[in-house]
C-alpha cells in the first residue's frame, strides 16, 4: 500500500480535510461540534470521524474529551487556516483567471488544494493582487494566518430594512446559480422583507446597509 500523501506541514490530506472541516463548522456558527457533525460535513461514518479525531488529538491539533465537543488547538487552527487560504485563493484564481463560474470553483479547489506548495500559493496571491475575499465573499487568510473579523449575520436572523450581502455559502451550487441570476452576490443591496424561503435565507450573510 502506498504511503499517505502528506502536505508541507507533514499532515496527511485526510488530516488537513478534517481540520478545515472543523474550522468551517465553527467559522460562522458559535456552536459546539461533535464527531457526528464532523462526520456529516465530510460525508463519512461517525466511527471514521471518531478515529481521526483521536489521531488529531494525539498530535495536539484538536482538543477533545470523549463524547464532548471538538475544538481546534492553536496549532490546529493555524493549519486549518493554511488550508482555508489555499482553498479560497484557488477558487479566486479559477474564477478570475480561468473563467470558472462561482458555482464550479469549490470542487475544483478541493482537488487542487492538497497538491500545491505554500510557495505556489503565495505567488498566486501576489499574481491575483492579494485579494481579500473569495468569489463567495469569504475572507482569505493572510500568509501569517490573520483573518479579519466579520460582523455579518445570517439573513434569516437580520431585522433591518436594508442590507448588504457579505457572503453566500458555497454548499449548494444550484442555489449559487439561482442567486447569481437574481443579482444576489457579495456587495449587492437587498431590501426586506425578501422573497427567499427560510433555507435560502440561511445561506446568505448580510450586514447593515
TrEMBL record:
<keyword id="KW-0963">Cytoplasm</keyword>
<comment type="subunit">
    <text>Homodimer.</text>
</comment>
<dbReference type="InterPro" id="IPR022689">
    <property type="entry name" value="Iron_dep_repressor"/>
</dbReference>
<keyword id="KW-0238">DNA-binding</keyword>
<keyword id="KW-0678">Repressor</keyword>
<keyword id="KW-0464">Manganese</keyword>
<dbReference type="InterPro" id="IPR050536">
    <property type="entry name" value="DtxR_MntR_Metal-Reg"/>
</dbReference>
<protein>
    <recommendedName>
        <fullName>Manganese transport regulator</fullName>
    </recommendedName>
</protein>
<dbReference type="Pfam" id="PF01325">
    <property type="entry name" value="Fe_dep_repress"/>
</dbReference>
<dbReference type="InterPro" id="IPR001367">
    <property type="entry name" value="Fe_dep_repressor"/>
</dbReference>
<keyword id="KW-0804">Transcription</keyword>
<dbReference type="InterPro" id="IPR036421">
    <property type="entry name" value="Fe_dep_repressor_sf"/>
</dbReference>
<dbReference type="Pfam" id="PF04023">
    <property type="entry name" value="FeoA"/>
</dbReference>
<keyword id="KW-0010">Activator</keyword>
<dbReference type="InterPro" id="IPR036388">
    <property type="entry name" value="WH-like_DNA-bd_sf"/>
</dbReference>
<comment type="similarity">
    <text>Belongs to the DtxR/MntR family.</text>
</comment>
<dbReference type="InterPro" id="IPR007167">
    <property type="entry name" value="Fe-transptr_FeoA-like"/>
</dbReference>
<keyword id="KW-0805">Transcription regulation</keyword>
<feature type="domain" description="HTH dtxR-type">
    <location>
        <begin position="11"/>
        <end position="73"/>
    </location>
</feature>
<dbReference type="InterPro" id="IPR022687">
    <property type="entry name" value="HTH_DTXR"/>
</dbReference>
<dbReference type="Pfam" id="PF02742">
    <property type="entry name" value="Fe_dep_repr_C"/>
</dbReference>
<dbReference type="InterPro" id="IPR036390">
    <property type="entry name" value="WH_DNA-bd_sf"/>
</dbReference>
